[in-house]
Design goal:
Order of helices and strands: HHEEHHHEEHHH
Shape: elongated
Radius of gyration: 30 Å
Number of strands: 4
Distance between the termini: 98 Å
Protein name: Helitron helicase-like domain-containing protein
Structural class: mainly alpha
Organism: Araneus ventricosus (Orbweaver spider)
Oligomer: single chain
Helix content: 40-55%
């Protein structure tokens, strides 16, 4: 075995000694590519086969660092390896600054009193409380086993349903906006979505009636229909 290894090493040394500069560059590039491919193959399933003995932070294929650089056009933070101008197509795309949210929502998002903390911990539930439509598609594909996402084939659309509930049914989602009584709206929302507080729902509901153009349109349509 030792003699075979020595013979192989000698043949490799002779071969490399006779390489041209171009051949050496091609060989080194091929070696580097094989190394990258091998490391990528080893870490492909890292999310599902985590190995505590591997220092993932030092692997350039996984750790891309922090967003410490700024875009030359709009000062957006970018990664070190990110192509210049990719975030805004070299200044062609310009986004307007985000407006500050209404005071009641801003307080719920940033304060630390009881209702605010509860809202922050259950923000998705409160979002569902006020949703007007639901997601739908002509065909949904779900693979066997664990699958945190789903695939859609065909057309994507929003289910809106009727604006008034059917007989002997309580209003849900968009239908609640057409309930004339404010307290009744709050009651329906909290009953449909568990672990929500009427005090928080009331604040968000008042904010939407004051600032959301869609809600204002619904309110106008309801009042016009009643009159």
């Amino acid at each position: 075995m030792y003699r075979l290894q020595a013979a192989n090493a000698q043949r490799m040394a002779i071969s490399r000694a006779s390489e041209t500069v171009e051949e050496r560059c091609r060989r080194q590039a091929a070696d580097a590519q094989r190394t990258v491919t091998a490391r990528a193959s080893e870490n492909t399933d890292s999310a599902f086969q985590y190995n505590s003995n591997i220092c993932y932070e030092s692997d350039p294929l996984i750790a891309i660092g922090r967003m410490t650089l700024e875009c030359n056009f709009y000062q957006a933070l970018i990664w070190k390896g990110e192509s210049p101008g990719m975030c805004c197509s070299n200044g062609k795309i310009r986004l307007h600054s985000l407006q500050a949210p209404p005071e009641s929502l801003y307080t719920l998002l940033t304060a630390d009193y009881s209702d605010a903390v509860h809202f922050q911990d259950n923000v998705r539930k409160y979002n569902v409380c006020f949703q007007m439509t639901s997601f739908g598609s002509t065909k949904e594909i779900r693979d066997a086993g664990f699958m945190p996402t789903f695939k859609v084939q065909g057309q994507v659309y929003h289910r809106i349903g009727s604006l008034q509930p059917l007989r002997n049914e309580e209003p849900k989602f968009l239908q609640i906006y057409f309930v004339g009584d404010k307290d009744k709206q709050i009651e329906n929302r909290c009953r449909n979505i568990s672990n929500t507080r009427p005090s928080i729902v009331s604040q968000i509901q008042d904010m939407l009636h004051q600032h959301n153009s869609y809600v204002q349109s619904f309110k106008y349509a309801m009042e016009k229909n009643v009159s």
